[in-house]
Amino acid sequence: MAGKDGTARKKGHTDTTLFKKIFDNSPIGIALTTPDLRFISVNPSWISMTGYTEEELLQQTVRDITHPEHVSGDLEQMRHLASGAIPFYRTEKRYIRKNGSILWGRLMVTPLRDTSGKLMYFLAQVEDITVYRGAEQEIRESNRKLKEAQELAHLGFWNWDITTGAVEWSDEVYRIFGLSPATFSPQIDSIQALSPWPEDHERDKELIRRATQSHTPGSYEQRFLRPDGSVGYYYSTFEGRYDTSGNLIGMIGTVLDITGRKKADEALRESELRFRTLVNQIPVGIAITRKTETGKDLLYLNERFTEMTGYAMEGITSFDTGATHAYPDPEYRRSLTGMFPEIFSEAEKNLTGRPRVTRVTCRDGTTKDIEFRYTSLQSFGFWTMTDISERLRAEEQRETLIRELERKNAELERIMHTLSHDVKGPLITIRSFASLLENDSQSENFDILKRDIQRITSAADTMQALLSDVLEFSRVGRAIRHPSLVSFETIAKEAAGLLEGLLSERCVTVEIDSGLPGVRVDRVRIRELLVSLIENAAKFSGNQPDPRIWIGADTGGPDPVFFVRDNGSGIDPRYLTRIFNLFEKLDPVIPGTGIGLPIAKRIIEMHGGRIWAESEGTGKGTTIRFTLPMRDDIPGTG
């Protein structure tokens, strides 16, 4: 055992000696620190690299000689090493030498623990890379200058030494200003004199001040006068030069002659102004788009387009955005955009596509019928839009008037036919019985004379009734007047009251629902309507032992549907649409001219409503339904 112990001690001594030689002779700086980073051993290379003596280093911590920008990072990594989260720590960092200069080192730190795993020391190895980092910085600077030179090719250069006031120009700068190095010496005052616009100088000074305060490059544009009196323009970029304390000591920059570009810009602005003035005078909406890979960018909308739709360029970033506003209904928008490939293809072939009409929702929520054409101009699209809403309304009114005229002509023909037929009968009767009256008067038989006079009177009454109904039908065709808001229940009761004698004679009961909605109507006309419908229902009560008429309304829809229902003789469903025709009589035995329901139909239509009849058949009663829209704008009011 004693021999083994001696061998172990000898081996340990040899290892320690070997480590000491490596430690002392290593070209890499090596330091041993406590867990709180206090130096306890440093090798000669580390002493040489930092400029401190061994005694001075052993009185300091790693933090004392570390550049402030690296301290927090170091401490964070040391905590990771101490916790065992990482096996070692490697980085490049700056140290501050004893003389204040910067030492760049490539550092690797390893934790040393005892057999129980307790952290005892940190072993730091540092390679001096100061020269390498300096060369690297020079390479970056060289690359920056090379890049700068490449970017500034064919430009004039200038350099201003603020400490001496000297300004240097390249030959290109002299050429831009139209000056000669032999006759012009560039100084700050003489350079500013080339641009006799004080406001420009104040602006340029402010730009330079901001750039130098932030230590960032800057740029500005400047007007100048050439020796021949013409105005030129240049664009200058500049960058400050600073000493180690951050003080501005000079500036370098470039000068680019942009006179041609400025004149082109001015000509373009004048051309664009003329274009905008012209386009804004055109009495149609105009939109200009640019074709892109993703769609069409919206470039311009003229004033007429804005007047027409309410939309302006503000808030519309693309053609698709405009479509979303103008066509809010997704289905309609999809159907329209689905046409675009055909529209674009058509324009590519023929330059301008055929006109199409869309219903556009304006900014205020109203809708307009817009006719548009698309013209393809290389990479641009030219859209012209015309509001044809009034034209379509006029055409619709024209068609309505034509239909109304045709209907009135047909009614007139029917009236003339009816008058020629129905008036002829009473006239023949009057003529015949007048002749009989003349003959019978000689017989002095007063009963026969009385019968003849009754027949003549009856025929005259028939003619009078027919002519009165025709006049009434004609009168209803005129405009509705004096509409007012009134309870429908009130009008129904008034109509039933006017027929009290007839209803009592025929033993007809009229039931009127309570709480019927109010309507805005011509009260007199609607009362006439109800009188006609109630009277008609009473006449066709048939053999019903308990004849009844119900007046009410179904209010489940957007507008109430009023009805007059009876339990009378009913109507064959085949004839439900014929009963509203002029002079249409389904039962010639029952008195009447066949004008009552056509008059009712016309009254309802003049109010903007519609009327129809329902019946399950003969003997099953009839229901007349009609609508009276709840609105103020009754057609034809005046």
Automatic annotation (TrEMBL):
Gene3D superfamilies noted in UniProt: 1.10.287.130, 2.10.70.100, Histidine kinase-like ATPase, C-terminal domain, PAS domain
Q: Which residues form the PAC domain?
A: 89-141, 218-270
| Segments forming domain Histidine kinase | 418-632
Q: What region holds the PAS domain?
A: 15-85
Q: What class of enzyme is it?
A: transferase
Report which superkingdom the organism of origin falls in. Archaea
GO MF annotation terms: phosphorelay sensor kinase activity
Coiled coil feature spans? 391-422
Q: Which UniProt keywords are given for this protein, alphabetically ordered?
A: Coiled coil, Kinase, Phosphoprotein, Transferase
User: Which EC number(s) are documented for this chain?
Assistant: 2.7.13.3
* InterPro entries membership: HATPase_C_sf (IPR036890), HATPase_dom (IPR003594), His_kinase_dom (IPR005467), HisK_dim/P_dom (IPR003661), HisK_dim/P_sf (IPR036097), PAC (IPR001610), PAS (IPR000014), PAS-assoc_C (IPR000700)
| Reaction equations catalysed | ATP + protein L-histidine = ADP + protein N-phospho-L-histidine
Q: What is this protein called?
A: histidine kinase
Name the species this protein comes from: Methanoregula formicica (strain DSM 22288 / NBRC 105244 / SMSP)
